[in-house]
Amino acid sequence: MQTIQKERVHFAFCPEQPPQARGRSGEIFLFECQDCYCGQLNEDGMDFSQMDMSRNNPATGPLYIEDAMPGDILRVEILDIKIAAEGAMCARDGAGVYQIEGCHCRRFSVEQGEILFDKGIRLPVRPMIGVIGTAPAQGSVPSTWPGEHGGNLDIRELNAGTTLYLPVNVPGALLSMGDLHALQGDGETAICALEMEGQVTVKADVLKGRKDIPTPFLTTKTHYITTAADPSLDVCNVKAARKMHRFLQEHAGLTDAQAGLLLSLAGDLRVSQVVNPAKGCMMVFPRGLAGEQFDR
Known about the structure:
It is a single chain. By secondary structure, the chain is mainly beta. The chain has two helices and 23 strands. It has helices at residues 233-252, 256-266; strands at 2-4, 9-10, 12-13, 21-23, 27-33, 59-65, 73-83, 86-92, 103-111, 114-116, 122-124, 128-133, 141-142, 146-147, 150-152, 163-167, 175-181, 195-196, 198-207, 217-219, 223-230, 268-273, 279-286. The strands form four sheets. A nine-stranded mixed beta sheet has the order 1-5-19-7-16-20-21-23-22. Strands 2, 4, 6, 12, 14, 15, 17 and 18 form an eight-stranded mixed beta sheet that branches. Strand 22 (268-273) and strand 23 (279-286) form a beta hairpin.
């Protein structure tokens, strides 16, 4: 198993990023990840002005998959996520959706699978990946942005046991990831989760000829999840819903009307994050409900 070390990071997804490791389809890889602050928020109550936010959201990688070519799909199975014993958060005026006076940089410990929050509040951890994606076909997308390539998705279902399908836009795919969270609610409304350093173990497979997968696409043990990103939430939620609509027509043999009616009954249209330059939405649908046939 290859390891991509946490010092090998970048801050934008682009075709010109030099690979930090190479492997083949079907191999298992371990990505060491810094937290989203590059380890700068290392003291409870520290002064936010001391932080260099140009180093925000480091993504470890990229990994070049030898047999991945444009038009393919990269299937990334998240096998394991290990997080540190302490994480960081920062709530401040003008960041996120709340009216907060001043700036509050915090550190919280994790003990026996729980976050030790203030006033005796304990929260069970649910480790997840915030940033994961491949390179776009052209141009440069900051690691703080989500998009059709993946990137800063901030979807709380990106945890161990989930499979993520990403587009291959350039030779080698150029897979990167980072921004681990011990726990995050939908929306990531204060602009951060409990930001963690840690390690992610994944298995990466190249799928050929799979035009039927609406990337970025997630499968969990219980649900299918289509995703979309756009600066407008109104546009974003329609994109995510229509991806699932097409998916059900393709894989469950439903008409357009049947798929729409079924999604209005059993689909959950959710907001994944509202704090990045492009917002994130997702449509969640129970696996097996419509007898859909999806070959992984």
